[in-house]
Amino acid sequence: MFPNSSNLGRPPFPPKYQQQSTFFTKLPLNIPPSLLSHQQIIVPPIHFRTAVALLSGNIEATPAVTPVVTLQPVTYGSVSPVSTSDAVTSFQGRKRQSQQSVPDDAKRQRIHSHDSDTTVVNQAVPLPEERRRSFPSPISIQSPVLHAHGSPALIGCVPPLQDNLFPDPAGTRLPVAKDELSQQILELFQVCRQQASDLDRKELCRTELQREIQLIFPQSRLFLVGSSLNGFGTRTSDGDLCLVVKEEPVNQKTEARRILSLVQKLFSTKLSSYIERPQLIRAKVPIVKFRDKVSNVDFDLNVNNVIGIRNTFLLRTYAFIENRVRPLVLVVKKWASFREINDASRGTLNSYSLVLMVLHYLQTLPEPILPSLQKNYPECFDPAMQLHLVHQAPRTIPPYISKNGSSLGDLLIGFFKYYATEFDWSHQMISVREAKAIARPDGIEWRNKFICVEEPFDGTNTARAVHEKQKFDTIRVEFAQAWRLLRDKKDLNCILPLKAAKQKR
């Protein structure tokens, strides 16, 4: 889910001064032998030419570069480790087990270790006396970084990535609904929000794909990002994956496309038994779109778009510091999807922009419900922070106590009113980083764009897909109509048929 090797006491990539110009470098050999007692990883350098040979099935021509990887069984949620045969799974010819005889949560756990009876658990976010969700990593030991003597107690409101991803303890319990509209919002949220079982299916796919991709790119890590982890996912949310091959930026027009071409070929050949319809999309940030047959989840996979990793945990923190945020975001996303204004490929708003619009509205109320986390906790959201630390930083942030006691229903009506009548689309930009509307920049990124939503880390326009006036006018009409209907009727059904929304989930 969030792979790292902080349990080695080092980042997942060697320091820049140790790296060569190519990103297919050897695993650093300065690891103490004691750390390799349970697993030995032999990872020779592999280049594009070799990768193509592997993907083409020409394995025998290059036997010296076939990596030998021994992994331990892993545990996801409450599922027990799955026993398999003693033989290590080979690179070729692995057949999937019978769908009838293997539970869904165990279909991809087929590798058994001879050396240890212990289970690899989540070493990325260790908490004492608590079962933890598995995060695959090369060696199964506790992190000296996180278990340092005298480390402060974890008192934050953001739940760690563990068995129950979205727990409901006192710090994150849902708000009380005192009116019919608020009750409708809460009921929709409880039915449609992502469950731990939904996340498990995505995590199983990520784990399997990371193991296969690392046979081609040994130093790579595959991260699950976006709504699956940021707290705003639904039961039908797609999965977003970020393949990180090196710490430095990757040229998205050339290098990323070459890497994704190899990944697409891997998916369409060796992994075709459970990956269907892999398609390379040559966008500004190119992706491979595919569907996992086992989980029935659609995925988008990018290369080194690490902003997505950083903003996942920024949004996750916003999701949990105030208990009205997640229900409000979910109902807005459902409404936008139903009204067909939630599709960037068709010139409307993507889900990320919708989330930022909700957060911005909550920040700009006369009595704010949300602060600017990047201003209040700059050390937790430092854009230069190493990737293997990003998910740990927000965990000590306490809940935000707002004096604003507005109900969910009143906040939803106010959200639509703000964007229908108050926000100045022609001259202002939505900025969650600044917690206010700011003047539009004059750069090319913002010209001829009708909606400007600032990405909190890199400052780009997340709503750049809305570049046609007709689509923009449609969006504004939908906001104005939703505001008037909710103001007059106080019934969520008047803008979003609840029965259909709950069935779709």
Offer a quick outline of the entry:
This protein is of the alpha+beta class. The chain has helices at 48-55, 180-192, 196-213, 227-230, 255-268, 307-321, 325-338, 351-363, 373-376, 408-422, 469-489, 498-504; strands at 41-42, 68-69, 221-225, 239-244, 275-281, 287-292, 297-303, 428-431, 436-439.
Structure explained in plain terms:
This protein has 505 residues and is of the alpha+beta class. 29% of the residues lie in helices and 9% in strands. The protein contains twelve helices and nine strands. The chain has helices at 48-55, 180-192, 196-213, 227-230, 255-268, 307-321, 325-338, 351-363, 373-376, 408-422, 469-489, 498-504, and strands at residues 41-42, 68-69, 221-225, 239-244, 275-281, 287-292, 297-303, 428-431, 436-439. A five-stranded mixed beta sheet has the order 3-4-7-6-5, with helices on both faces. α2 (180-192) crosses α7 (325-338). It is globular, with a radius of gyration of 23 Å. The two termini are 23 Å apart. Mean pLDDT is 76; it is low at 4-49, 59-154 and 163-171.
